[in-house]
Amino acid sequence: MKIKESKIGILIRTKNRPLCLERAIVHIISQTFKNWHMHILNDGGNFEEVERIIKNYDSRIDGRVTLYDNRFSVGRGNALSQLISYSSEEYLLINDDDDTIEHDFLEKTSAYLDNNERCVGVVTSNYDVFETIENNTIKTIAKRDDFGKEIPCSSIT
């Protein structure tokens, strides 16, 4: 029996930002679209810490993660190139460890691509989010849209 490949590969680069990585993983596993696979590259950071975080979500990840480790950092661009070369899914999402996505993001973007054969990618709008980490909690200082308009926000734990 052939194992079905996931439709969306989620590429996550990380280095010594466990709170951010954990939040990114929670946003992925909370997606309404479930046919994904995470490729996480620890780029010169604490590998054991990354393994521990993934292990905390084993039952919800359900084998849909591959962890890679660079003993020494190769930098953002090279790490992304590595992840792209490791993935074989139909669609790819570049999702850094400090990124968050809406719960239906994968569902909406993959449906758009499926229904628009001539489309080879999706570019979405984003917010610039300014955060700090205090007492093991990520606190949002400000959110701004593309035009500099401030968006009300609250602390995220």
Summary of the model, kept short:
The chain is of the alpha/beta class. The protein has helices spanning 18-29, 47-56, 58-61, 76-86, 105-115; strands at 8-14, 36-43, 65-70, 91-94, 128-134, 137-144, 150-151.
Task: Please tell me about this protein's structure.
The chain is α/β, with parallel strands linked by helices and 157 residues long. It contains five helices and seven strands. It has helices spanning 18-29, 47-56, 58-61, 76-86, 105-115, and strands at 8-14, 36-43, 65-70, 91-94, 128-134, 137-144, 150-151. Strands 3-2-1-4 form a four-stranded parallel beta sheet, sandwiched between helices. A three-stranded antiparallel beta sheet has the order 5-6-7, with no helix packed on it. Strand 1, helix 1 and strand 2 form a beta-alpha-beta unit. The radius of gyration is 16 Å and the shape is globular. It starts with 7 loop residues before the first strand and ends in a 6-residue tail after the last strand. Mean pLDDT is 87; it is low at 153-157.
Shape: globular
- Biggest sheet, spatial arrangement of strands: 3-2-1-4
* Overall pLDDT confidence: 87
Say how many strands there are.
7
How big is the Rg?
16 Å
Q: Biggest sheet, open or closed, and with what strands and sense?
A: 4 strands, parallel
Structural class by SSE content? alpha/beta
As a percent range, the share of strand residues is 25-35%
**Which spans have pLDDT < 50 for at least 5 consecutive residues?**
153-157
Task: Characterize the quaternary organization of these chains.
Answer: single chain
How many distinct helices?
5
SSE arrangement, N to C: EHEHHEHEHEEE
- Report the helical percentage: 25-40%
**What is the rounded distance between the termini?**
42 Å
